[in-house]
Amino acid sequence: MRETQDKKDGRTDMTRGSPIKLIIKFALPLLIGNIVQQTYNLADTVIVGNFAENSDDCIAAVGVAMPVMFLMVALFFGMSQGATIIISQFYGANDSKSIKRAVDTVYVFLFIMSVPLTVTGLLISRPLLETINAEGNILEYGVTYLSITFFGILPSFGFNLNSGILQGLGNSKISLLFLGIASGVNIILDLLFVAVFRWGVAGVAVATVIAQSAAFIFGIRHINGKNYGFKISLLNFKKLEFDFTLLKDIARIGLPGGLQNAMFSVGFLFLHNLINAINSTHAGFTAGFTSAQRIDAFAFLPIMSFAVAVTTFVGQNIGAGNLDRVKKGVRAACLLGLGASILICMTVLPMSGALIGMFSRTPEVIEYGQAYLYRMMPFIFILAAHFILSSALRGAGQSMVPLIGSFIGLWLARVPAAYLIYYISPGVPENIYFSFLIGWTIGLIPVAGYYFSGKWKKKAFRFLRSKEE
């Protein structure tokens, strides 16, 4: 009965069948959806770069604003990830009542936290940007972008939460539809607000908020219209079943990931502080970095999709008690990640100049953007291994080790290495990008060591026993 209903609703039971086929099947819609999402992120930058006044400053402003935005929302997105993992484990254990309580609980949390987070973001945007040496147009455009974006916190959270809930149930296909709606609306409004109305970065921010709101509303209508075993009752909070104990479990699993994202954002603020300082003597450096990051994020999408698939795969099989299948699935995902890394390198590097040229025609911007890609791309297989093993541990409910690995890789390796490299060779500032390789390698060591030690297995069983009790 459950298998028939799952197929009807687009859900995937990952406790049976070939692990590599299941991971590819689950990851493919995620990959397409992520490509769509990054396409509209790229569209933001391309449209601004070609139609906005002071286009290089606009590109740089969006680049320096993003870590501030991620810093503010990181903890909640961690909670969303924790809910996804909890839901996948309940789904693997065939516990529909607990799935409903988890959905209700995380939605109550969303509404409680969105207002203070919006207010806080509006208050600290300018001070944070000033702290990282953003000046002139870059500072003003960055404040404008953040101020508008923070007003869209609630639909942004809801849009991502709906996708996460369905991914926990094994349904990655519908997330593609959510992203398709958001992307189509975003690109159309970008062209209208930036190319026609000439609103610059403000137009990009407004378009993003409207697009995510549309996808959020559609997601609620979809979930309520299907037989998933629960409804999202936003207009009647009395129907939402809040479980504080379950919220603590979601926080225990999700907050380390949220802290990891927040830590990553703070690290990028420190890195942007250095990059913006370099930009004062090497014009175009910040814009080149921002443009190359867009390409890097786009190219890394296949690996990201495999990592997300592994989280659900591990979560469902932990819930079902199939620990041997977990190892097979992680091994398959690592092989897929390695193959994707090789293909990405072979595709992106020969086209690097043309790709950066989509964002800016300034020679210095293109040169510095290419320098980033040539120093990063050959080593992304290390980052792929880090992401996949970290995702496997999170799926097992063990989020602290990935947090520790990221802390070591970022704060004890990457950030210090970037400043040290620039101090040693200030005439070649692009060499600071080798700090990424150093950070990835050192951060991978504790994550891989813990995974291969097998200690996560006993802790996973302890978590399941506590749920039964």
What does this entry show, briefly?
The protein is mostly helical and 469 residues long.
The largest β sheet comes out as: none
Our Rg estimate from Cα atoms comes to 22 Å
Helix residue percentage: over 70%
Number of helices: 18
The strand count comes to 0
Mean pLDDT rating: 84
Indicate the overall shape. Answer: globular
H/E topology pattern:
HHHHHHHHHHHHHHHHHH
Q: Which class best fits the helix and strand makeup?
A: mainly alpha
Distance between the termini: 27 Å
Could you characterize what this model shows?
The longest helix has 38 residues. The chain has 469 residues and is mainly alpha-helical. The chain is 82% helix and 0% strand. It is built from 18 helices and no strands.
Looking at this protein, list some descriptive labels.
disordered C terminus; mainly alpha; globular; 469 residues
Show the helix and strand layout.
Blueprint: H1 2-9, H2 19-51, H3 55-92, H4 96-131, H5 136-150, H6 153-168, H7 173-196, H8 201-225, H9 244-279, H10 285-299, H11 301-319, H12 323-348, H13 352-357, H14 363-376, H15 380-395, H16 400-424, H17 434-453, H18 455-468
Helix pairs in contact: 2-3, 2-7, 2-10, 2-11, 3-4, 3-5, 3-6, 3-9, 3-10, 3-11, 4-5, 4-6, 4-9, 5-8, 6-8, 7-8, 9-16, 10-14, 11-12, 11-15, 12-15, 15-17, 16-17
